[in-house]
């Protein structure tokens, strides 16, 4: 049965692209300059269904990926296959497949990290980047897991996700729809930290359904994650330290492409972590050509405030056109 959100998107072409030793699933729609859409955790290509409609109606061609480890893309078993060198390799393979020398890139959450790293490693392939929720922080003198543990303790969700199999076992106590609801419907800006001896998924609430998403949309995520499991997505967290080690040669490197950051004022850790950095000179030094937009909303801002976010993306694309 076709869901309402699928009907609104219209005709989508699906591709399976061999790149970097794996298969990547790409959904394509529209004609015009290419916009690459990169999702986060725990999401899929169709997290962008609102933006796909808005962007293609405005004369853009959209390529929305299932990143490696997600959906209909391959999910290599080892966490060491999920560094940003692997992810950027996948993206370059996708661009080459579609004969695209330079594209606009829009990323949310881990997809924002992927967009920043594509801009860092291969600025020649990026016309401009819009990051949702996640700025690029300077490379820390200590590893990310040490930094997070120092700041938030051992029961931060990121810290709990490090151990292979731990989060999967905890998630398995719930049906997939409940797991998806606990993450996608997060409606506060607190950083998720569990009390001692409690798994983060047990500590997280299951909020009631907000007006911006339907049960059908949530079920579509649940069905796909039921099929694939969550390990691929969790492996991004488990590869953080390896990425950090490997990107030492880029210490102090600046982002040279035009950039825009859209962030919700109640995003996870915004008040306690991100706000100060975003308003600091440090970010401006790291990303000289950046525009920052703060809007009212939470982490999954592209779904919660689709029109506003799409308008901000389009104004940026028009400015660079």
Description:
With 321 residues, the chain is of the alpha/beta class. Strands 1-2-4-3-5-6-7-8 form an 8-stranded mixed sheet, with helices on both faces.
How would you describe this structure in keywords?
8-stranded mixed beta sheet, 321 residues, alpha/beta, 8 strands
Helix content: 40-55%
Please give the largest β-sheet: 8 strands, mixed
Shape annotation: globular
> What is the arithmetic mean of pLDDT?
95
Q: For the terminal residues, how far apart are their CA atoms?
A: 39 Å
Query: What is the overall number of helices?
Result: 16
Q: Rounded to an integer, what's the Rg over CA atoms? A: 18 Å
- Strand fraction equals 15-25%
Strand sequence of the main sheet, in spatial order?
A: 1-2-4-3-5-6-7-8
What structural category characterises the helix and strand content? Answer: alpha/beta
User: N-to-C SSE series?
Assistant: HEEEHEHEHEHHHHHHHHEHHEHH
**Structure summary, number of beta strands:** 8
Low-pLDDT sequence parts? none
List the helices and strands and how they pair.
Layout: H1 4-9, E1 13-19, E2 22-29, E3 34-38, H2 49-57, E4 61-66, H3 84-97, E5 103-108, H4 110-121, E6 126-132, H5 144-152, H6 157-160, H7 166-171, H8 176-184, H9 200-203, H10 215-228, H11 231-238, H12 240-246, E7 259-264, H13 270-278, H14 281-286, E8 290-295, H15 301-304, H16 306-320
